[in-house]
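Researcher: Predict the fold of Transcriptional regulator, TetR family.
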Amino acid sequence: MRHHCYDRGMPRWDPRAEERLGDAALELFVEHGYENVTVEQITERAGLTRRTFSRYFTDKRDVLFAGSEQIPGVLSGAVRRADAALPPFQALLVALVDIGEWFADLVPHAARRRAVIASSPELQERERTKLAAVTDALAEALRERGTPTSRATLLAQVGIAVFRTAFERWTDEPEPADFAARVREAATELAASLAPAAGLATVVPEDH
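Model: Structure tokens for Transcriptional regulator, TetR family follow.
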């Protein structure tokens, strides 16, 4: 349960405090570079206190990854809910479509967030760690559906690639296509690219 707090110029608790801090942080990261921004500058821009910042975030890096710990559970849960009759990869694609609305609130800030992360090796490492956790969760959900371990891991990695491609395209151009359409688009492109793989054995000999 959240307690009321009293920040500068605000006589009562602000239900938008977390959003204001996040907006202020992104603005400052884009304007001055992630490394050059302090928590004090973020709270000053938002018109809130350090105490309020600490209620929502551990540090300035946490602003960019708030809520990301929920993603493995959200995605793997969607895989588990998919029709048991579906083959593994189809179940994964259905799951990606199913959770599109969960990410809708991230759309307005996604492009700026990506730009900030791309500018910092520290943030890139955090992003890789997050994606690894999501991949592991998806692979586990596929194994529970009876998919062999090595195949489950491969499909989870491919699924994450489809998800990232779809999400980036959706956030760069939210209209007219929705997230589900972007997932189908990315999956279709992947299938088309892999179609010639049946003849791979004739191109790459078994013995070198």
